[in-house]
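Q&A FORM
Asked by: J.P.
Topic: structure of Transcriptional regulator, LysR family

PROVIDED:
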Amino acid sequence: MNQLQSMRVFVKVADLGSFVGAAGALDLSTAVVTRHVADLEARLGTRLLNRTTRRLSLTESGATYLERVRHILADLEGVEQMVVARNHEPVGTLRIVAPVVFGLHSLAPVVQSYAARYPDVVPDVTLADRHVDLVEEGFDVGILVARHMRSASIVTRRLTTGYMTVCATPAYLERHGTPTRPEDLLKHPCLSRPSEQGGEERVFIGPDGEVRVRPVNAIAANNAEMLRQFALLDMGVAILPSYLIGRDLASGRLVRLLDDYRLPPIEITIAYPSRLHLPAKVRTFIDHLVDHFQPGSGLTRDSRSAARVSAARPAAGLTSPGDLARPELSEESHEAGEPARRLPRVPRARVAASSQF
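REPLIED BY: S.T.
REPLY: Here is the structure written out as tokens.
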């Protein structure tokens, strides 16, 4: 029989001085109560209760055992209440893992607002672009960008969608012309990831359907933030995720190109260990993430702010009326009809730095 239950039964029998009374209080039969006590005595190899036809009394061993068992059961009850409270009230350390670039540019506001709302939770954020085993490494929540995870021990939930954006600085475009069709990228030095070096095919969806091109890389880096820095230094045309360059587009530091064309979207998902009873800190953080990135907030919210900023100031080019409907971080667009001139002399290079779109 269950030893803890036998201990609880024994305490109740000792308190009430009766097998029948204990049976009634515990909603058990008298025979079951008697067996619990007998099993304890057999396990301990000693008698705990003196039984007569008129009353029960504790033996010396029974009195000692009763005192210690009360403490054990009280401690156990305290632990159970603490665990229940942690599952119902957000408390403790919340371990979060996210890709480097997304974490640096999009995660901090979410964590800040969550920490302000739930001060008893301590967020512990890790940024990593390697494969992470959430269960093995003890993470509570992971954010995945353009990656899918299939595991019986992991639950995934769609968070939001990002977009790849073709962009360059106004200074670069003034000197070298503005591409208006995907084919024009072949005339410009491109800045992209190492796996794309040598001309990975890009598939654009435009007014006339699919357009496939293989831009020639001038510089490759495996860190999107580094590619952004190269673009800001007027070194070429970059294809970067919307969540990375929203503020640059809003301020005019970068100009979005090929406004009539779109690259495949970037799916951003939440992953967390599958549990029957999800801790409150995990449950509330997931809900907070979803609320932050829902339409009208998060990535889309930033885009609307960017659109308002761009509308309020002169822009180096024209703003497309369709911009406000595009769900990107920034909805500013510029066009220039200037023909392409000579290309800048940019040395081909490859920069190693860990990141992922």
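FOLLOW-UP: The mean pLDDT is 79.
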